[in-house]
Amino acid sequence: MFKKITHVLSVVLLVILSLIVVYSLASRIMGQTPSIFGYFFFRVTSDSMEPTLQVGDVLLVHSSDAEDIHKDDIVTYKSKEGSMYGRDVTHRVVSDPVIKEGKYYYQTRGDAPGAPLDKAITYDQIEGKLVRKLVLIGKVYSFFCTPTGIFIFIGIIVLLFGSEMVSLFFTSKKFDATDDLLFETIEKDNSEKSKSAAEKSEKNDPSNKSE
């Protein structure tokens, strides 16, 4: 029973991981940010939000309506400034939004001491509002980015796929053996039936009767 449960869990895990990888790659190729039910995952790559957010932190961000974003909220948006153009930036909203001609404008800035004000952004640039830092996931992610972590990650994948391949191999062998046995049984049964029919035919043949 335990073996069957482990097998099912391994298959489910592999399917889920495969779907996530395919979806993430497809989204990146199309220039989109992968999301699950409106939630996004981002990783901090600069010190502009220290000490609130550290380099390497993994963030859970959720899409929000324009009127739900207020002063002191931390948002992630697509930058349209200089070398950061098209890249994701996570900064704090430092003032109440301004509405001009039906469009929402937000003023943001990093938390780092001395950080300058960003150029005002519009709602259509915002990908979502910070829900929380995923501390454990951040630590796991950082670990798997190290040589040791990469080696262990590859080992886990090999073990998962390897166990499935071995299981499939032996299952296939088992089915082959069952098929062979079934084929032999059918052949033997047909042979016995043919022999019985021949003996009956021989008994009923008048030419075989002695005078």
Automatic annotation (TrEMBL):
Ranges for domain Peptidase S24/S26A/S26B/S26C: 39-79
Molecular function as annotated in GO: serine-type endopeptidase activity; signal peptidase activity
Cell compartments where the protein resides: Endoplasmic reticulum membrane
Spans annotated as Disordered: 189-211
Entry membrane topology: Single-pass type II membrane protein
Transmembrane segments: 6-26, 140-162
Chief location: endoplasmic reticulum
Entry keyword set: Endoplasmic reticulum, Hydrolase, Membrane, Protease, Signal-anchor, Transmembrane, Transmembrane helix
Annotated GO CC locations: membrane
EC code(s) of this entry: 3.4.21.89
CDD domains: S26_SPase_I (cd06530)
Cross-referenced InterPro entries: LexA/Signal_pep-like_sf, Pept_S26A_signal_pept_1_Ser-AS, Peptidase_S24_S26A/B/C, Peptidase_S26, Peptidase_S26B
GO-annotated biological processes: signal peptide processing
Top enzyme category: hydrolase
Function statement: Catalytic component of the signal peptidase complex (SPC) which catalyzes the cleavage of N-terminal signal sequences from nascent proteins as they are translocated into the lumen of the endoplasmic reticulum. Specifically cleaves N-terminal signal peptides that contain a hydrophobic alpha-helix (h-region) shorter than 18-20 amino acids.
Record's protein name: Signal peptidase I
Organism: Ruminococcus difficilis
Lineage: Bacteria, Bacillati, Bacillota, Clostridia, Eubacteriales
